[in-house]
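Input set for joint prediction.
Command: fold jointly, output tokens.
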Amino acid sequence: MKREKSKQALLYLFLFIGVSVMIAPFLWMLLSSFKTNAEIMRVPFTIFPEHFKFSNYAKVWTEVQFSVYFKNSVLVAVTRTALVLYFSALAGYVLGKLQFRGRNVIFILILATMMVPWPVTIVPQYQLMVWLGWKGSYLSLIVPAMFSSFGIFMMRQFVSHVPTELLEAARIDGAGEFRIFHRLVLPLVSNSLSALAIIIFLWTWDDFLWPYLMIDDQSQYLLPIGLAFFSGQFKTSYDLLYTGATISVIPVLILYILFQKRFIEGITMSGIKG
Amino acid sequence: MRKTRSLFVLVLTVLLAVMLAMSGCSSGTNKESASGSGDVKSGDGKESPSSTSTPNKPILGASLKYDPNQEVNGGKQITLNVWVADQYDRFKSWADDYTQIHPNVKLELVKSPWGDYWKKLPLSLQSGVGPDVFYQHPSYVLTMVDFMEPMPESVFPSNEIEADFTNIVKTQDGKLYGLPLAVTTSGIYYNKKMWAEAGLTETDIPKTWDQLIDAAKKLTKLDKKGNMTVMGFSANGEYHDMLNAMNFEKGNFLFDSSGTKVSLNNDTVKDALKFYKDLSSVHKVTEPRQDSDEDEFGKGSAAMVYNYNWAGEYFNSTYPDIEWGYFALPTFDGATPPAYDKNMLEFTPGVNKVIDDTKKAVAWDFIKFIAADDTQVMKQVKEASGIPAKKSLMNDPFVVDNPILKVQKDTIPRTLNYGFIPQSAINKIVTKMIEDVLFNAVPISDAVVTAETNINKSFESAGLKFKSMERSYPFANEFKNQ
Amino acid sequence: MASNLTGLRKSRRFRFGSRELIISVTVGAIIIHYGMFLFFPILYGLYGSFFDWNITTSNFKFVGIDNYARKLQDPVFWKSLFNNVYFTFFSVLLVTVLSLIIALSIHSVKRFKTFFRTVYFMPVVTSLVAASFVWKWMYDPTMGLFNQILDMFNLPHVEWLTDKHTAMPSIILMTVWKDAGFAIVLYMVGLLNIPSSLFESAKIDGANSRAIFWNITLPMLRSTTFFVVVTNIIGYLQVFIPIYLMTKGGPGTSTFTTSFMIYDAAFDYYNFGEASTISFLLFFVILIVTFAQTALTKRRGGFDQ
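tokens >
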């Protein structure tokens, strides 16, 4: 019993050391965002700011236009997530519940594309966007990402768990396939959809290289590009840089802490059922 | 279950609303500026002298003249999209002065950091969605020349330009893409406070590289654990330029006699590379880092740095507490070398080839205004702390009193211009070569071969057409490799 | 399934109904979308890899297998592959081992389970761009957190990102911090799914905890481990963002990875032909790794245990 107790104590010690390592960068970033530039550059360092300087936030939010980047990021991430969810569910239903020739070929091809690394397509896709005239527009960020192989794969798994009898019953009642999909299937897989939503949203929120190459107009920047440009431009204003980083990290972190159960569910579903 | 369903419906509704809002806005911002001039092409300010009302504003310029009383774009509203890198303040001031004369013109400035600017600009121009007018730099002219409009002879007659400007550079096919406004080169900045603390005086200003090493040894500081807290000398981030300077000082051209292929695999380059390596490995006066020496200097972790003229203004604005001095690049024997270094030109902005003629006319008018008005040229001269490339400004008080230009009065005639070469590609590969030697223990003799092959291969695969102007330098006969 | 099939026959015999419509719309959209945004770019990139293709000079000249021959002889390319393998091997190893240890610990403690899971997962939902910047500043030689901590213990400074020996390990460290939480959660789920009767009968048989770990826990987590290892290997072989934001491949070529090389060729030299060539070489490597893993998975029983 005593041995068990000391073992528990050791485990707690280990885990709490881990916790401090995990949290340290967040705290460092958050605390630095309230310091003056001089204080950040001072050696030896201070942990807590001498005076909390909130004006960094006002400056980054308005002068550096993080409010605009933030709005743009939300807009693109939400739109893209919505489209991916809808098309993944639709493709999942068609490929998982309806029988037709070539179905397996298509599904295998979709699976195979998950193995294609991004560097293979980025150069020709860049050229394609130029030809289509989509460069500089959000179309280039949203349309090529409308179908996600990962999303289709995941939704097909979930839709195939929907009892076929339910669908048959609806068909006997005379419901068309679109009606069945929208009114019956979509609500039944809504839990899985929200899990997928979280993953796709995170991916989009963090997408850097493609938006960086595609978007030219400063008023259309997304948060990650804004942050990268910003740190090139203000490379010596560490106070503002930390503030900018905090602004792009904290909202998602808060969302995560609020909805963490669903987050974890989504992540584990994507992993284990794979 | 029910709860999640209603949540889902709610989310979907929100998404739909956002999508609707988006469809109106995704293509918006970018095109807005272009639609400013949606009217029929009309007399472009220059060709047709539209009803000259009483000339109340004085005409600007000596030979190349600008008449502020002449209307632009027939007085109709027009917006030009202007991209700048770090030069926002200067462009803003140019734009403000110009739009005060021509209130019907709107100049919309978009700025990005230096490195990103040169990545995005050529790609945007190439894809046809680039800006109308943009900051340009001679190092990058070749990568953008296919998308740029050459300066029209009708607006900028050769005889007028040659009468007013020095250092005019044309492309190989004789086209002009920008007028030079200021000339800059390299030198050494030193921290005056550290200089005094180390017991050094004005008489210790190094004339030779060996003297510089001696001074650097006195300026280098280590803490008790042996960490270098102050580097006596640093060229971090600039070592490709410094290597090039040492190469010229030794009378060695960068290009072979064809002018289209670089030559790095020779003893002079190898010696220069070894000299640079020894600064850290033998003399221990510097520490090679992936940093920029101007920031090391500003933060007080370097006492002397190699850099170009612009750094002086950068210190004044970013690190106002630093008191700096400046001296000319040392040489190997203390005598005047064949050339100290290359020189760099600051240009008038470039114009996008694909914009319509109405916009082009306004763009050239704006550029003519900048070039003809000495006040506007001085803004560039001051920003870059460069020698003016306009003859009328040579004796301007700023030029006479500037601590950098005072020194450069003697050295700038001994600097060399390549013309338009793929400078950025060369810089990148030479930097990689030096880093391979400094960080990766690659033998110097291997590094120069690799770099030479890679640079020449990159010219070939890009299909670039250019020729280095090195050999038309006035003192070219003093060089070893003709 | 059977009733599904009869339904299909019934409707197809008579009309082009909603079933045919939904299939043709969806399949049509998939074919157009994948054709346009995936298969076309792949083929076009393959085509372009046989050309001197520069988009700023509009140069497009056939050079045969020149690009491939040159890249295969280029020591920097091999160095970049080595860096890929170096980064991938140690990141995967550390992520897997550390997350297993942490998941086991969280599984064994009695309280704060949710708290621990929440905290360890936090870096996963953090933007990689922001994380790269913050870590880069923490690695700063003079004002960074790490060297200041070393100062407190009177230890000599480490040049983290600017020393060729420590640059890659520094990026690996950041990656482990960022990604461990994901694997921890997967392992925690895996641990919950092990029937407790297995442990009980083992205890009755007198097995000590070490034996239980090696003979029960680890084998039962095999599918989770495979998933973690496989997905991470494929992802890490394409690592780009932390390299781009923290070291730009330097110092020298010590963090120059293949993805970064592709980016560098395409968007710094505008040499699209060479960039395409390198990406197909990388694709080839990833295919080999994937096939090797599939073969291994099949032999060992795979995900389904």
